[in-house]
Structure formats: C-alpha cells, structure tokens
Write a structure and sequence with these properties.
Helices cover 47% and strands 17% of the residues. It is an alpha/beta fold. It has a single domain, classed as Alpha-Beta Barrel (TIM Barrel). The chain has an eight-stranded parallel barrel with strand order 1-2-3-4-7-8-9-11, surrounded by eight helices. Strand 5 and strand 6 form a beta hairpin. Helix 1 runs parallel beside helix 11 and helix 2 packs parallel to helix 3.
C-alpha cells in the first residue's frame, strides 16, 4: 500500500486567508507529506469557478517540484479536450525535468460540462477528442515530428525540445468509475484513480480495469512499463485519537459553516443536525474518518473489495485547521499504514 496526498483546492468560505497564504500552506503540506513517506501528491485543476482555487496545476506542480525531492507529483487531471496538446506536452516535459523525473500525468475528459462550454468545446465530442489528443501527447513525448489535421486538433510538424526526462513518457492516469472507460484505460497502459462514490459502485470499474491490465501484460509484455496499470482510491479522510473525537470535531466544523452561511437572516440548524450529516457521510463512505484503527480497518475492507494499491487521501474540509490537516496526515502515515499489511 502506498499513500498519496490529493487536493482539489475547494474554497472554504470560513477561511479568511488570502490565496497566497493558502498556496503557501498547501505547499507546506506537500513538504510534510514527503517527510512522512507519502509516495504521491496530486492536485486538481478546475476552471472558471469561485468554488475552487487552483486553475493551473502546471504552475502549482512547478512550485511543488522546487520544495520536494522524492514525492511523485501529478495533476488529477489536465482536461485534455480543452488543452492545446502540443503546449500541454511541452509544459509536462518541462515539469518532468524540473522535478527530476517525478511527474505523473493525469488526463481528464472534462466532467464539468460548463468548463467545456465556456471554451467552445462540444461536450458530445469530448471522448474522441480525448482519445486523439492522448495519442498526440505520447507521440510528441517520444521525440517524433507530429502533424495532425482533424476536427479536434491541428498541428503542423511539431517536435518537442526538450522531451520529458521519463521515457517514453511520464506515467499516465485517468480518473473515473465507468466500467467501459476503465477497460479501455487499462488496455492502453494508463493507471486508474477511482473517485468518491461508495465502494460497491466502484467495484465494477475496478474489476474491469484489473482484467484489462492483466490482458495487456499477458499479450504485450514488451510494452508494459514499470508504473502503468496502478489502481488508486481517492477518499476524504479525517483522523483523530478516537472515533468520537473525529465525529465531534467534524460536526463542529459543519455547524460553524451553518452559522457562517445563515448570517442574520436564516435560523441556524441545531448542532444535532450537523452530527446526523456527519454520521451519514461516514456511513455513505464519503469520508474515511475516526481513529487510526477504525480508518485502517475501513481501508482494508475497501482494498479487499477493489484491489487498489494506492490511497489518495484528501484531508481538507470546510473549517479544518492546518494543525488538524497535519494530524490526519501524520496519523495516516505513522499509525494507519503500519496496520495495513497484506490484503487478506
């Protein structure tokens, strides 16, 4: 089992710090994750929304590359149908050199339709556009001269300088839970990150992905790369010394958000309502929350059902303090991970 830190940079309306202060704290968290032995850091990239704070994974990963030396760095994900593929290929190649070969390239279809429409991309064309541009990226990264003239891409004799440090290309990721997409992704050498749905809803995609990876390795062993075919689970986490402490602290944060949102015009729901919501989020598997022992047992159960080898943990929630983020990451690395052992 490997651990990763995952951050979608959702804005906390109760946090009065500036964007710069938030970015600095998040980079500190990446440094901490590396010191704790985390293997990965992934950030989201979301555009044109006041609810999210990071529209440029490239810029953030460049900064993180200079604050760390071993943790692998990636986006989850660059939205491929909205990106000029030659420019994205160049950006990722430079990032790979800045990080000394540590970049993981997550590529996305564009699940937020509004982003596609703002940039004039027809959502019905996102799958063929993604497929074509993924192939273009890989061709460019190997150093060949690429020309494309299609409905989605126009490139006339482009070649990269430099090509990525990792050859033939940085490891590729896709995030999603559709079984058909998982089959295709596994068959072409990508890794798969499963999202924030209940585990039972993710099981079909996990099963089909593993089958596709095994078939690829059996039929094309000479084309199998060391870092392809990995399976990760993305989850919100919250760790404390006991289940009840975690539950009460999370409820306090949610109730404070109720107070903030209500202002002077609306009644504030009782704290018991916040407790009911938190209990529901834990029961519905939105959060891995509780003591190290409880969280370890949850991860074991999820791993036995899905077969993942990487947990991408998002420790951020409305109202959480930097100190409690540090506590969750520290407990996850020092007390949860040693309990996991082998899958039963």
């Amino acid at each position: 089992m490997e651990l990763g830190l995952f951050d979608i940079f959702q804005v906390d309306p109760t946090d009065s710090r500036t964007h710069g202060e938030i970015y600095e704290q998040r980079l500190n968290d990446v440094e901490l994750a590396e010191k704790l032995g985390f293997s990965y850091y992934f950030c989201g990239e979301l555009h044109f929304s006041p609810a999210f704070r990071n529209p440029s994974a490239t810029a953030l990963l460049a900064a993180a590359s200079q604050r760390t030396s071993s943790i692998r760095l990636g986006a989850m994900a660059w939205t491929l149908p909205t990106k000029a593929p030659a420019q994205l290929a160049e950006d990722i190649a430079v990032l790979d050199w800045l990080s000394n070969g540590r970049i993981e390239a997550g590529l996305g279809l564009g699940h937020r339709v509004e982003e596609l429409e703002i940039l004039g991309v027809d959502p019905s064309n996102r799958i063929p556009s993604f497929q074509e541009r993924a192939a273009v990226l890989q061709a460019l990264w190997t150093g060949g001269q690429v020309s494309v003239n299609s409905d989605y891409t126009t490139i006339r004799g482009a070649s990269l300088a430099p090509t990525p440090m990792q050859q033939p290309n940085p490891p590729l990721w896709f995030a999603g839970s559709d079984p058909d997409a998982a089959t295709w992704i596994g068959s072409i050498g990508f890794s798969l990150a499963l999202g924030f749905k209940p585990v039972a809803d993710l099981a079909p995609a996990a099963r089909e992905f593993r089958r596709a990876v095994e078939a690829r390795r059996a039929s094309k062993p000479e084309r199998t790369l060391p870092r392809e075919g990995r399976l990760a689970l993305m989850r919100q986490i919250y760790l404390a010394d006991s289940d009840e402490t975690a539950r009460q602290e999370m409820a306090t944060d949610l109730h404070n958000l109720y107070v903030y949102s209500a202002g002077s015009e609306r009644p504030v729901p009782p704290r018991e309502e916040a407790l009911r919501v938190i209990d529901g989020l834990i029961a519905d598997e939105v959060f891995l929350a509780g003591s190290p022992e409880s969280v370890a047992n949850q991860i074991k159960t999820f791993r036995d059902e899905l077969g993942f080898g990487i947990l991408l943990a998002n420790p951020y929630a409305n109202g959480i303090t930097p100190e409690r983020v540090e506590r969750s990451l520290t407990l996850l690395a020092t007390e949860v991970l040693p309990q996991l052992g082998s899958s039963s």
